[in-house]
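To assess whether the prediction recovers the assembly geometry, we first specified each molecular entity separately, as shown.
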Amino acid sequence: MSALETEFRGAQMKRHKGRVDACIIGCGAAGSVLAKELAEAGWRVVVLEAGPWLDTDRDLRQDEVEMLGKFDWDDRRWVDGNEPFAQGHIRDGRGVGGGTLHYGAVALRLWPEDFERFTRDGVGRDWPISYDELAPDYDRVERELRLSGPLEMPWGPRRDKYPQGPHPLTARDMMIASGMDRRGMAWTNTPLGILQGGHEGRSPCMNYGYCQWGCKSRAKASMHVTYVPKAVRAGAEIRDRARVTSIEAGADGRIEAVICQRAGREERIEASVVILSAFCVENPRLLLHSATPAFPDGLANSSGMVGRGIMAHIADPMFGRFAEPVHMWSTSPGTLLSQHHYGTQAARTNGGRNGSNGHNGGNGGNGGATGGRGTPSFAGGWSWMTSVLFPGEFGGALAKAAPSLWGERLTTLLGQYPYFAILGDEGECLWYEDNRVELTDEVDEFGIPRPKITFNFGENERAMRDEIHLRGREILAAAGAHEILIANGNDHTMGGCVMGDDPATSVVDRNLRAHDHDNLYICDASVFPSSGGAQPSQTIMALATRLARHLASGEAD
Amino acid sequence: MPEPRYPTLDEFWKRLDVRRVEPDLRDALRARTTREAGGVRRVGREPTVVAVVARLLPGTPVPPEALAAFLDDTFDLQMGKGDERSGTMPRAEMIPAGFAALDAAAGGDFAALDTSRQDDLLAQAERKALDGPAGFDSSAWFNQVRALVLLGFGSDPRGMVFMGFPGPAYQPGYLWLGTDEVKQRTQRRPGHTVL
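The predicted structure of the complete assembly is given in tokenized form:
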């Protein structure tokens, strides 16, 4: 076994007894960052993680079936609504590292306009903080993870150079980039949390391609090989397989303890500060389940907003079949990026359905809904990137892309797998109050009610989806694809514990403290008031860095 | 451009040795190619399950009996999938219910129908028009079964070889990346394609 991950799990990891300074629930993108930053600031930290502490060498395999369920939160959850909200693999992670065990490590920031969706477009919500307030924390995370990226990003806010150079483009990327060129779109190498050179004992990327099934080279910045070892080295204790069953609150609103089940025994952890980082479904679930006579509607829920505002990204895989093999599997998933269509663009006056190309002069994201070019037909935008599906998932995803795709035609298409490239997209979904997590009457083995997630696309999402499909077909056709198939889908989860300045309409404040509880914080994508059109992991880590900085400074006292 | 040649199953196994794939994964991959007739015990009547698989994915090197056995092994496992549609029966109940519903619609034996009638019934199921017990949704059933069959196919080395996929990458990884390099790899010389 690797020293990097396991030297800390035995005698070298500190065991805290009695009351601690911080108890963090969830050891993913937020919890791991918080543990490291707070422990390095001298805090006594215990992290409770429901899943196992996997070891790269011993536990990870480059195989879809072997890995399915190994680090996925695949407990039964009921879903409802007009947009199927798949749960399990590539949604919530379970294990030390959380969702970063499976993430593709696409390392994008939100844009300033994403923090002002309501102010700019009159829809969705604003963040109570600005991009500029979060920018130093994005910087810190990017340095810590040694992100790789292009020399210059053609879009978005100005930023310093990435710590490492870009990953190479592959055949599939070059094919799709040629289509973008012909459509007048800028593209670049995607910023990735994947090493290009060795760093802190970790290997550079070996192009195994299995990033989303667990990285075998440790090049990917999964928390279990980056922040977690440093957290433990600084004195944090990570308790894996610790399933939190409730949070205890006194009548005065102070959080008194966290209760968890571990190895068949109940543990009670008292902490000065409790930070909930169990992600967008489990955070509301725990808060609602932890209701007391003083808080009959659940903790942190005087606003009634706990569980509300669940968001995803429109993520419709576009399959382009080319005349030459492109071997999509030959490196990490998202190596080619275009944010040409990011953000609200005034030129979208008719969804592009009359032949207008919808471009607004080169780069995307013009940062405004108006500007003299009419009212856009939808707010927000999306990122493009190439993608990978390995053989087991490829067939299932492809089959959803056309009606009645089975039989001989499906067999034929599977035989053409090496000729397929996938153009992926991450489109913004707005915050809607009725997209929510609720408790059902059915309980799990820990006696916790199972959640039901209701998720609907609104007009904005449907209009954006139409436009994404139109533009995607144009790109793939311009790249020379002989056949184009598009499946509907969505990915990532955000929202459920929204942040805001008004206690009547939000769960946590601008510093992520629950309005109703002085010593309860919530930190992960559940606090997002808008989703942007980019992967959420960097923003989660930046928020966690900001919260740790805030707590360690003593400002919260 | 000449048609590229991808490795045979024998070459696939040899490459696994060269790549130092973990013994347990190598064993698991081999075990997937040994599923055979008689492997359907729980999900439905074996002739029905095999016939359905054969219509969903005909003419591949992975025998329908093997994929039917995979389906039987996995239909009630979470397998990284946590969502269940509100108002419908759980997946683990839905999948057997669907095979029983097909048999019922076929007058008792789906496998005894000619293939065009089998296809009609499967199309009916896909359209959500196949009757079943309360909470049964035949369209959801169809999608669940097809997804499992395709997962079984794509994770079986015979299926991987059919799809031109070289299997798990280990050191030094897939180092040939660009368009020209992919061309070189697939055109290297007849009988000796290294991916």
